[in-house]
Amino acid sequence: MIKRKGIFGGTFDPIHNGHLHIAYEALYRLKLDMIIFMPSGKPPHKTNKIITDPKIRIELVKAAIDKENKFTISSYEIEKLGLSYTYETLEYYKALEPDTEWYFITGTDCLMDIRTWKNIDRIFKSCKFVVFNRSGYFKKKVIEQKNNIEKEYGTSIIYLDIPVIDISSTEIRNKIKESKEISYLVPKKVEYILNEMKLYK
């Protein structure tokens, strides 16, 4: 029986309830057997930004997903040398498990910028590309971009029109700096680690 697995990439700096909401919606709607959270190592589009130590981000993701047996975490992108390119990650997993049907889960912001990604054609060959809606994007524009990319690359993109939980990692970091409440934005175990380590203060 063919397994269906999703790769959900991001900096997760920190992971929050919005990420978990997306992961569960993808898990159920796409009937996936597993979702692999993939904290990015050195994302090429964020080379000018300060990102929290990867070991800490891994610890935060582990704390967030520890009760869900269909969620797991991979340190592949963090452990590999150099910049983290999505096509390399997907090709690595496709070679590792050739009989698995791979899904790559990302947001509408990535779809809108997809032409700036490296080796886009190889990404589409390695997976079913899944895009979830995010606040700040008009659905009509997103569908228009989806249709254009599908025609251009001869592919099919899955659009997950899910209820939006408007939380961002930037918002959480800013709230912590301002000593504001974040318990309603992140899982309890994540909040505990953030407090213990005094992250983002």
TrEMBL record:
Belongs to the NadD family. GO terms for biological process: NAD+ biosynthetic process. PANTHER family: NICOTINATE-NUCLEOTIDE ADENYLYLTRANSFERASE-RELATED (PTHR39321), PHOSPHOPANTETHEINE ADENYLYLTRANSFERASE (PTHR39321:SF3). GO terms for molecular function: ATP binding; nicotinate-nucleotide adenylyltransferase activity. Catalyzes the reversible adenylation of nicotinate mononucleotide (NaMN) to nicotinic acid adenine dinucleotide (NaAD). This is Probable nicotinate-nucleotide adenylyltransferase. HAMAP family: NaMN_adenylyltr. NCBIfam families: cyt_tran_rel, nicotinate (nicotinamide) nucleotide adenylyltransferase, PRK00071.1-3. The gene is nadD. It catalyses: nicotinate beta-D-ribonucleotide + ATP + H(+) = deamido-NAD(+) + diphosphate. Its EC number is 2.7.7.18. Pathway: Cofactor biosynthesis; NAD(+) biosynthesis; deamido-NAD(+) from nicotinate D-ribonucleotide: step 1/1. Residues 7-174 form the Cytidyltransferase-like domain. InterPro entries: Cyt_trans-like (IPR004821), NadD/NMNAT (IPR005248), Rossmann-like_a/b/a_fold (IPR014729). Keywords: ATP-binding, NAD, Nucleotide-binding, Nucleotidyltransferase, Pyridine nucleotide biosynthesis, Transferase. It comes from the Bacteria.
